[in-house]
Specification:
By secondary structure, the protein is an alpha+beta fold. The protein folds into two domains: 75 residues, Orthogonal Bundle (Arc Repressor Mutant, subunit A), CATH 1.10.10; 147 residues, Alpha-Beta Plaits (2-Layer Sandwich). The chain is 43% helix and 23% strand. The strands form three sheets. It has a five-stranded antiparallel beta sheet. About 3% of the residues have low confidence.
Length: 232
């Protein structure tokens, strides 16, 4: 039970992790924060549309950050127009400072988004990778965020498939995710967890990587970015 192993920093979905969030919250002006709030709200809505659960909650959270109704309607209508032609796949590469990245994409135009993502890597200090060049550095796992669990609960969860506990997160094999969701009464997700994240030396280095990730996240077809970095 590796309690201190690094967890995956999926900045588009899991940006609430305090260490990275503190850095991100110091970075931009008010308009940038507003844009980031809209981006996060949009991704929550798209996730709800794809999974068929949680749409009402996602819309309510979007309203709480004052996302205009026309933005919501456009987002939902665009998804409905494209949903029958969507394909999901991963792109791989290295960001600034050699940080490995897995970029999850869902699109109805594979060639377009491939070109757009490649351009970001080329222009912003990254290196786009071939299939398999980065994936071996990550484990595909189920992840569930909890409100905190006791050591006794950990032992019980291990019997039900849990393989790791980091902060308030429980990790498991993908095939055990549903059973652990039922046990914890929490919704989890499938993530790419870095095996040996690159250790960055300063907040400035972290900000450089987060700026790069933000540019990837701005693409409408990018639904997750998994980042193999750590910083003490």
């Amino acid at each position: 039970m590796a309690r201190n192993s690094p967890r995956c920093y999926n900045t588009s979905i899991m940006s609430g992790h305090s260490k990275w969030n503190n850095i991100k919250n110091r970075k931009g002006a008010q308009d940038k924060k507003r844009s980031e709030a809209f981006t996060k709200a949009s991704r929550n809505i798209l996730t709800a549309l794809r999974t068929g659960t949680g749409l009402e909650t996602a819309i309510q959270k979007a309203k709480e950050v004052n996302m205009p109704k026309e933005n919501l309607d456009r987002l939902i209508n665009r998804f409905n127009e494209r949903k029958d032609n969507l394909v999901n796949f991963m792109l791989e590469g290295f960001g600034p400072l050699g940080v490995p990245l897995m970029v999850e994409v869902e699109t109805d135009n594979k060639n377009r988004v491939l070109g757009e993502v490649k351009l970001i890597f080329k222009e912003d200090g990254g290196t786009f990778g071939e299939n398999g060049s980065v994936a071996f550095m990550f484990d595909r796992l189920g992840e569930i965020e909890t409100d905190g669990i006791t050591e006794e609960q950990e032992l019980e969860l291990i019997d039900k498939g849990a393989i790791d506990f980091v902060d308030n997160f429980v990790y498991c094999k993908v095939e055990d995710l549903v059973s652990l969701e039922r046990e914890l009464l929490k919704k989890g997700e499938i993530i790419m967890k870095p095996k040996m994240p690159v250790k960055l030396q300063s907040e400035e280095e972290v900000e450089k990587v987060l700026d790069f990730v933000s540019k990837l996240e701005e693409n409408d077809d990018v639904i997750n970015v998994f980042v193999g970095m750590d910083y003490e």
